[in-house]
Amino acid sequence: MSTHHTRNPCTKLCRYDAADRCIGCFRTRAEVRHWKRLPDETKAAINARIAARGGTVSKKDGKRAKKLDKKIRKLETKLATLRARRLELEGPLVKAAE
């Protein structure tokens, strides 16, 4: 039976950032994969590191972050389209100035 110090910190928001850390519980991919086989001392150290960082992300906050990520991707796509249109407009202006 796990104690508070060795409890699995998973928040079911398993997505990884560029540093290969889960955005929900802040564990590395290897720590997540091997959690059940890790010694209790290692689990306690990982949980202490997570607590020192401020704890895990709640499921509610994680869902909100996912929605915001989706909106950001849509806006980035739209911005790329608008920049391409802008470049098309600049093309004839540059030629006319020459």
Structure, described:
- The protein is an all-alpha fold.
- The chain has 2 domains: 1-57, no CATH class; 63-98.
- The protein contains 3 helices and no strands.
- The protein has helices spanning 29-33, 40-53, 59-97.
- The mean pLDDT is 86.
The succession of helices and strands, N to C, reads: HHH
Number of strands: 0
Distance between the termini: 78 Å
Radius of gyration: 22 Å
Shape by Cα distribution:
elongated
Kindly state the percentage of residues in helix.
Answer: 55-70%
- SS class: mainly alpha
For the report, how would you describe the main beta sheet?
none
Number of helices: 3
List strands and helices in order, with pairings.
Blueprint: H1 29-33, H2 40-53, H3 59-97
Descriptors:
single chain, 98 residues, mainly alpha, 2 domains, elongated
Short description:
This protein has helices at residues 29-33, 40-53, 59-97. It is mostly helical and 98 residues long.
